[in-house]
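Bug #77: duplicate submission created two jobs. Keeping one. Sequence:
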Amino acid sequence: MILKGRDISDEFILAAAMFAVMAFAAALAFHYKPSSTQGPKGEMKVTGVEAAGETPESFCKDAGEILIEVNIPATELTLYEDGIPKFRRRVAIGQGVYPTPEQATAIKGAEWNPWWYPPDAPWAKGEKPTPPGPGNPMGLAKMALSREILFHGTNKPWSVGRPASHGCMRMHNRDVTDMAWYLQQRFSSQCDPALREQYEKQGWKTFTVKFDRPVPVHVVYRPVLAREGKLAFFKDHYNRVAGKREAAILTELIRAGYDIEGLDEDEVKALSERWPLEELVDIRTLMREKSIVDFIDVPECS
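Kept job's structure:
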């Protein structure tokens, strides 16, 4: 049978093909949901991704007691989970004229591919907002603390491990994204690995994730650290223990649980004067040798 110059069998085949395409599109729409919505200032706020056969929550990790500690003189960040150090990373700290403040604070969320907005500070006068991308001072992710202090990536990787910032703590981009994802998996429902792939592929968009509860952060100033039976010494970047080095050593030993009654004062003084930055000092070398007391037998009273 011919319909307007076309065999009806052709019409049937065309209709069947269109039906198959529509069914395939419907299946894709069922398994994939939009993962972001437009937020303020052009930011994209994450709302969720579903993978076929799984929910985002199935990728989430159980969160133990997590604490992040930054030691300013060591330019070092340590993440503890249930008291166990999970990883340590180098950070850049503030320059002497823009010192990173000591504080007990918390991270409440992460921002992927962030914009940089110049702060209201003399050093940023004349600067303009910078969108996500290779030239962005925030790098690939940021996590806000208090007092306008952030953990963030950087477009100046050489600065990590030095007093180079205006107070924030810069990290290598891989380190800050690893930490942000580690926390996001444990403190939010945005756990699907497809999300992290999306952040990387859509590097021109900003994605914001709020955590279910704050992650505590302690920023401390300890130029000497007791660790695994040894003392490690670091540069006093902000000149806070000048003239108080012996006290700094004793304070750290007490904090680490050592009994300072057995310390050799002369050894501690010599160590404070030497302040060996490239050396680990065995704490046992600071202890006085125990004297052995001979007890004399005394005749029993009659």
